[in-house]
Amino acid sequence: MTDLHPSQLHNYLQMYTRTKWTYWGCLASSMLIFFASADIKPKHLKPWILGSSTAVLIVGKNQRQTAKQLKQTLGDVDQVSQLNFLSWMKQQTQPTAQLAVSIPSLNGSWQPDNLITDPVDYVNRVQKHVALVGGTGDGKSTLAQYFSTRIGGQVIVYDIDSAKDDWSWVEPGNLIGDGGLPEVNAAMKEALDHLEKMRVYRKEVSKDVPQEFARFYIGEEFPVLADCDNAPDWIKQHAKVGRKRKQFIMVLAQNDTATNFALEGDADILDTCFVRIRLGKKAQDYARSTLKNPQIEQWLKAGGKKRFMVDDLPCELDLSTWGTSAIAPVSPVSAEVKPRVTADELLKTLEYPEHDIVEIGLKQSGDWVAAWKCHNLNRSLRNINLEDIRLMFQGLASRGIGEVEGEGDRLRWRIDSSHLDKL
Length: 423
Hints:
- The protein has 16 helices and 11 strands.
- By secondary structure, the chain is an alpha/beta fold.
- Strands 3-2-4-5-1-6-7-8 form an 8-stranded mixed sheet, with helices on both faces.
- A hairpin with a 6-residue loop joins strand 10 and strand 11.
């Protein structure tokens, strides 16, 4: 193929296109003139018309010949176009070419738009239970403890493979599993009986179950517990009506399939009654494969244990300084006088919204505080509904921070100096 200057190539391509269309135009015109001559009456005109048709055909033939010559000069015209395009691409993608890609910074200044910082508040607002998914060492037990202190109720743990100090913050009699699956199975039956008693209580006494009947169940490695005969009924019944009767369940596993939670054939229950909290690599894999959001994936990796996923929402909650002392068992009373906790010291250990609630209680000098009063005295608390504030009252009281009285809409909370002396 002859080497051509780009301007020459452009001219030759135009000439080739014109001669090709001229050839086809002459061929079509010659045929039209030929067929038109059949309808002309004066016979002496026909030779002239046939001659015209032949002349047009000869012109077309010459144009055809010219097109062939141009094609030989250019080679294959389509190939010329392709080669020119490939040559341009090669120039643009040389190793010396620079490719600028804008990637959002994932340093500490970037945060997702839909970030939540209080997973307990989220769970309480949607009124669901929790399916906690994560690998060994991802912090499942710590997060379970945190939830139990916030939601309140008697904590009962099912774990047939617990090690020493795994659940040191749970009453020894409420850690069930040393007797293996039979012991857990019997405990699940007792829990179902208690759930039925709460149904009767709500029907015959009051729709508001007293806090003394509230329970917070934790099922560690539920795929193992799922072999219990009572496991399917236990999780289904509590999932559907447990929250109304103040019976909260948190089931722990390393994968969130319906089979792992004894819900095979009832996967809808897992979707409608549980908030999925994914920790560690499980959260990262979910962001990448399901949400298809590598930016969130990198954000999760950069934050360690304090960042995880709550359903489809990224969450950041640092529990590294919270530790297991939040509800540690009370040690025997000694002769040594324990230093009194000051109001400022107590407030430093709390986060929003509990911090704001306790601050209101301290300013009220031991007076009873109702949920609606928190709304009136603190603008930031107006974003939280009254029922959630009452749940926080109960959670604070269960940790020895103040006390509660009343039930349902009439539940109130207060804190005074005597409570600070006991902390």
